[in-house]
Write a structure and sequence with these properties.
572 residues, 1% strand, two-stranded antiparallel sheet, mainly alpha
C-alpha cells in the first residue's frame, strides 16, 4: 500500500510538472504573439505609412511627389556626399583607433578607450554648435584669432560640406571603434603568427590577415554610420543651412515647416532613404556570404599586443588629438560660452558670471517643461525598451515559436532606418487614426523613441540570455514555477546587470534625441534637445550654451550612476 501511495504521489507530481510545462509553453506562445503585434505596430506600420504617403497627393494616388524628389539632384548629391564622406572618415578613424588601442601597446590605452567612446554621450547637435562657434567664416573664434594675430581674414570655414562631414565623423567614430575593436580583441593570434612564419613582415601580416578578417565588422559599422549620416538632421542644420547646404534631413524639416506643409514630398524623401538602406543591407549580405570570416575556435588564446617601440607614443598622441577634437574642445567651448558675457577673444572684454544659467533656469519659459518632458521620456523609453528587448530576446533565444525569426529581423529594422523616417511614418499613422488621439502628446514621442532604440534592448537582452544557461530556467519550471514566476525569480535577477547598463544607456540617448523630436513635438511636449535647437535658431548663443551645459550635466550624472552601479556589481 505504501509503495502504491508513493507511486500515486510521483504520478501526481509528474502530472503537475507536465501541466506547468504545458502552461509555460502556452504562455510563451501568447507572449510571442503579443510581441509580434507590438513590433508590427511600432516598426512595420510607420514604414508602410511612409511608402503609401510617398505615392499620393491631394488628388489621390500619384507618383508626382516621388518624381519631384528624384528631380532634386542637388539635395541627393549633397546627401550622398555627406553620407559617403562621413562613413569613410569615421570608419577610417574608428578602425585606426581600434587598432591602436586594442592591438598595440599604446601608453594610457585603458583611459583612452573610455575617452574615445565619450562622443556617444554628447549629442551631435551640441558638437555641431560648439564647432560652429569655433569655425564659422566670420565670427568663429579660430578665424577671429587668426584675423587679430596673423591678419588672415578666414582660416577655416566649417559651414560647408567639408565642415558637416568633419563634425559628423567626429560624432560617429565610436561606432566603428567599438565594433572593429571587438573583432580585433577576439582574433586568434595564431593566424597572424602563421603569416609571419611564412615570411610575411609585421605590416604584411596586418594587411593580408588582420584587416581582411575584420571586414564584417568594418562593413557593419560602415552601414550603421552611412544610414545615420544619410538621415542626419542636427549637424547639417547647424553647419549647412546657414550657407544654403541642404540634405535630406534638413529638407524634410523644411518641407514640414512650410505652410502648407508638403507632407507627400517629405514622405517621398523618407522612402528614398529606406530604399537606399535596403539596397545597402542586401549588398552587405552579398559581400559577406562570399567567404568565411571565422576567427574564434575552441582553442583558447589571448590577443597578441604588438610592440612598436617609440612609435607607440606618436600613436597615443593621435588618439589624444581625436579626444581633444571630439570631446574636450567642444565641451570646453560650451562651458566658456555659458560663463562669458558675450563671445569675444579679447581677454580684456571678457567677464565671467552665472547670468546665463540664471536666465535659462529662472526666466527661459521652456527649460523646466523641456527638462520634465525629457526626464519622463528618458525613463519611460529606457523602461519600455528594456522590457520589450528582454521579451523579444527571450522568445528568440529560448523558445521554439515560429515567429521568433520575424521578431529577430523586424526588431532590428530601426537600426537601419533613419530616425527622421520613422518619425515621419508615425506622423502619418497617428494623424490618420482619429480614435487614438496621441498626436500632439508625449505619447507619440515615446513611440518614436522606443522604436528607434529597440535594437539596443534586443541585442543587450540577447547577449545576457545567451550567457545564462537554460538549465536554470528549466529547473524552475520542473519544480512547478509558472512562466511569469520563472522570469521573476530566475531571468530578471540574473540579467539585472545588463538591464541596468542598458536602461542607463537608453536614458542618456533619449535625453539627447533630436531628429524625431523636431518633427513630432508641440509647445506642450518640447524636450531639451529641441529647446536647445530653438535657442540656436533665435541666435541666443550664451543661453544656448548654458542650457547645453545643463543637458551635459544630466547626461554625465547618469553616466556616473551607471559606472558606479557596474563597479558595485564587480565588487559583489
Amino acid at each position: 500500500m505504501a509503495l502504491r501511495g508513493v507511486g500515486l504521489g510521483e504520478a501526481a507530481s509528474g502530472n503537475r510538472r507536465f501541466r506547468s510545462v504545458r502552461l509555460a509553453l502556452s504562455t510563451e506562445s501568447v507572449v510571442a504573439i503579443v510581441l509580434s503585434v507590438v513590433l508590427t505596430v511600432l516598426v512595420i506600420l510607420p514604414l508602410i505609412a511612409v511608402a503609401m504617403g510617398a505615392v499620393k497627393d491631394a488628388g489621390g494616388l500619384s507618383l508626382q511627389p516621388f518624381l519631384t524628389v528624384l528631380s532634386a539632384t542637388r539635395i541627393i548629391t549633397n546627401t550622398v556626399l555627406v553620407g559617403t564622406g562621413t562613413t569613410i572618415l569615421a570608419v577610417t578613424l574608428g578602425g585606426a583607433l581600434a587598432l591602436i588601442l586594442a592591438r598595440i601597446d599604446t601608453p594610457g590605452r585603458s583611459a583612452l578607450e573610455q575617452l574615445v567612446i565619450m562622443p556617444l554621450y554628447i549629442t551631435p547637435l551640441l558638437t555641431a554648435i560648439a564647432w560652429s562657434w569655433l569655425g564659422s567664416p566670420r565670427g568663429g573664434l579660430v578665424n577671429l584669432f587668426a584675423r587679430q594675430v596673423f591678419g588672415i581674414d578666414s582660416l577655416v570655414n566649417l559651414q560647408t560640406a567639408g565642415g558637416v562631414i568633419f563634425v559628423a565623423a567626429l560624432a560617429y567614430v565610436p561606432l566603428p571603434f567599438l565594433l572593429i575593436g571587438a573583432a580585433l580583441r577576439v582574433m586568434d593570434p595564431s593566424l597572424e603568427e602563421s603569416a609571419r612564419i611564412h615570411g610575411a613582415s609585421q605590416l604584411d601580416s596586418l594587411r593580408l590577415v588582420t584587416l581582411p578578417l575584420v571586414l564584417p565588422s568594418a562593413l557593419g559599422s560602415a552601414l550603421l554610420v552611412f544610414v545615420q549620416a544619410m538621415g542626419l538632421f542636427s549637424v547639417p542644420a547647424v553647419l549647412g543651412m546657414p550657407s544654403g547646404f541642404y540634405v535630406v534631413g534638413t529638407e524634410i524639416y523644411r518641407l514640414l515647416n512650410n505652410f502648407p506643409p508638403r507632407v507627400s514630398q517629405a514622405a517621398a524623401w523618407g522612402l528614398l532613404l529606406l530604399a537606399v538602406t535596403a539596397a545597402l543591407v542586401w549588398l552587405q549580405g552579398v559581400i559577406l556570404n562570399r567567404r568565411s570570416f571565422v576567427t574564434i575556435t575552441g582553442k583558447a588564446f589571448r590577443p597578441r599586443i604588438l610592440d612598436v617601440g617609440a612609435f607607440r607614443y606618436l600613436l597615443a598622441a593621435l588618439a589624444w588629438i581625436y579626444v581633444a577634437l571630439a570631446v574636450l574642445l567642444p565641451v570646453a567651448t560650451l562651458i566658456w560660452a555659458a560663463l562669458v558675457n558675450f563671445i569675444t577673444i579679447d581677454v580684456k572684454l571678457m567677464a565671467f558670471d552665472l547670468r546665463h544659467f540664471r536666465y535659462v533656469l529662472f526666466q527661459y519659459p521652456k527649460t523646466f517643461l523641456a527638462m520634465q518632458n525629457s526626464l519622463i521620456l528618458g525613463a519611460a523609453t529606457a523602461s519600455a525598451v528594456c522590457v520589450l528587448g528582454l521579451g523579444v530576446s527571450w522568445v528568440v533565444v529560448r523558445s521554439r515559436s515560429p515567429v521568433r525569426s520575424y521578431l529577430d529581423q523586424v526588431g532590428m529594422f530601426p537600426l537601419a532606418t533613419p530616425s527622421m523616417v520613422l518619425a515621419l511614418g508615425l506622423l502619418w499613422v497617428y494623424v490618420a487614426i482619429k480614435w487614438l488621439p496621441i498626436y500632439g502628446t508625449i505619447g507619440i514621442l515615446l513611440l518614436a523613441y522606443v522604436t528607434h532604440y529597440l535594437p539596443f534592448g534586443i541585442r543587450a537582452g540577447t547577449g545576457a540570455l545567451r550567457q545564462l544557461h537554460a538549465e536554470l530556467e528549466d529547473a524552475a519550471r520542473m519544480t512547478g514555477a509558472t512562466w511569469s514566476k520563472m522570469v521573476r525569480w530566475i531571468t530578471l535577477p540574473l540579467t539585472r546587470p545588463t538591464l541596468i547598463a542598458t536602461w542607463t544607456l537608453i536614458f542618456i540617448l533619449s535625453m539627447q534625441e533630436v531628429s524625431s523630436s523636431i518633427l513630432l513635438y508641440t509647445s506642450r511636449t518640447v524636450v531639451l534637445a529641441v529647446a536647445v535647437f530653438d535657442l540656436w535658431e533665435a541666435g541666443n548663443v550664451n543661453a544656448l550654451a548654458a542650457l547645453s551645459v545643463l543637458q551635459l550635466a544630466v547626461t554625465f550624472l547618469a553616466l556616473l550612476v551607471m559606472i558606479r552601479a557596474r563597479h558595485r556589481q564587480v565588487l559583489v
